[in-house]
Amino acid sequence: MSARSSPLMVGFVVGEGDVESRPAGWNWRGWLEWMAIAMLAAGAVIGPLVLGGTTSLARVAINLLVAGAAVAWCVARPRSWRLMCLPLAVTALAMLQLLPLPGAVLQSVAPYSAQLWMAANGGILPAWGTISVDAGVTMVAIRQVFLGLAAFVVVADLCRDGWRRLFLAGSIALVGGLIWGLALAFPMNEKHVLLGRFSLMSVHGPSWRTSVLTPDRTAGFDADVPEVVTVGDKRYTVRYWAIGDGIGSYVVSNHFAAGMYLTLPLLVGLFRERLRGRVWGWGGAVVSLVVLLAATRTVGFQAHSRAGMGAMLLATVVFMALSSRSWLGRWFWGLTTCAAVAGLSLIVAAFFGCLPGFPGLLPDGIRERAVVALKDGRLQLTHVAFSLCAVAPLLGTGLGTYGVVQPHMAPKMPRTYFTHNDYAQMLAEGGVVAGVVMVGLALVLVAGLVRCWRAPEEERCRDAGAWAALAAIGLHSFFDWNMHVPGNALLTCLVAGLAMAGVIVGDEERPGRWSLRRICPAALLVTACLVAALLSVRDMTSESAARRLRYALLGMRTATTDDERAIAMGRLEHASALADPADRWNPNHVELAVLASQAALHLAADGDDASAETADAWMKRARARSPLPFGLPEPLPGGQGK
Question: Is residue 280 domain-resident?
């Protein structure tokens, strides 16, 4: 029985009449739907090829494209209210972290957040506070979650149409070929130069660290002991992030691995789907296996990504199991997949300390390597995340705040902005509520995978690439932070939508009608998309102001001659003048306030008396926005000064 006609409905069920029949003549609704898919395809191309989408311009471009696609999808024709409510419901739950709560209520629902706000308020519980300890980064994270889920539901609905599905899958497949080709053309190099022109190395000071890039454009952890800068009778701390190793168009090799397994299975799947007959069927299977194993070799031996290599191998066996046409090949690869999943589950459990006696059961040669692997820094970071989840179990400390809280939770560890375990970080930042949402989405995807396994041969081959990519990212997310890389996060949402498009059941013949239960969520979704687009542009301008301050402050710290100091002071004055209007437009940006206070401190030391009061004002803003503002100027111990 075809998955289209089966009464079994997996995940989000599109109700009767949710898809309108195509009228004769010019079909503006169809054009809007094609426009939505085209915008998502453009985002899928921009993200991986522009440094993983980590630049400010690439990030805002992706957000605008996704928001535009969701708006076009909503207004083109009546949609399933279930699909529209998914991103809205998850966003509404996450927004609870930004809701100002009375101090007593905050202490009962989020005691750890209340403790931090109390410590920042001189030991007095504030009258009002938020669960998030940094509302600015939480707002950004919530917006990214909303747009990602919006992209997922748009693709899951529109790509039930074969031509739209082929267009989007073909775009992602094309990106996969480009990612692989760029990695071969621009491999890892000692100068850490991407695409022959983008250098990751620092211009001033040690080349392996940087203070001017955001964490997602670096390796995401401290490169060295933070630098303490003394200005007059105050001092502040500068954090330095380790630069990425860089390969192809990606800053970090592990993220390149994700770009490979999120795209190449779809490329191989398009090729495999069109080979028919006994000879071509076996030939296609052999070619598919060879291509995926070659990609695995690139990930493991050229990019040196162990977790990425394991994920690529899992994608290979899942793809072969779903795309095999003969019963023998299907069951062989199916059993191989089950064995791989069991083995990988055992490795993951042992890695995270669930099986303490496991290394002792291994042979001597393998045991030594296993003991070394169990001392990996990722394990310590995951333990910190679980400790944070234990003290903030219900709603966490706010999405995106792990890097803010980690130095407070583990002061002896190097500062790390990401957990290198997306699941643990989501639990730490979102608590049990985020865990329930993750489990719910995972169950929907697992049910869809089971349905795909039972589907007819044609539908299995069509969906094999998407499900293989999802299996790979599901494994790799235990060991890395791909969901915080905009390009890879978008690819994951698009691939998940393509996979679910094959298992969502709906009536595609009867025309749909607008009703109250469809108009209300559609209006809310359109409004939310427009707000998200506006906030994305706003954040780009505030990040631009913060970046100017970082470079200007770096110039002040590295100037060695009077002429260099004069030039650096001029740049600092210009950057400080731009900070105030940017801050008025984005009054939740903690780092901007901290950087502006540091700049005002330097200007005051140069004889500008008004800048001393300005520095105090910026410091008050930073403390009001977060109880843990890193790098805020503080008096020298013992009243020393110079």
Answer: yes
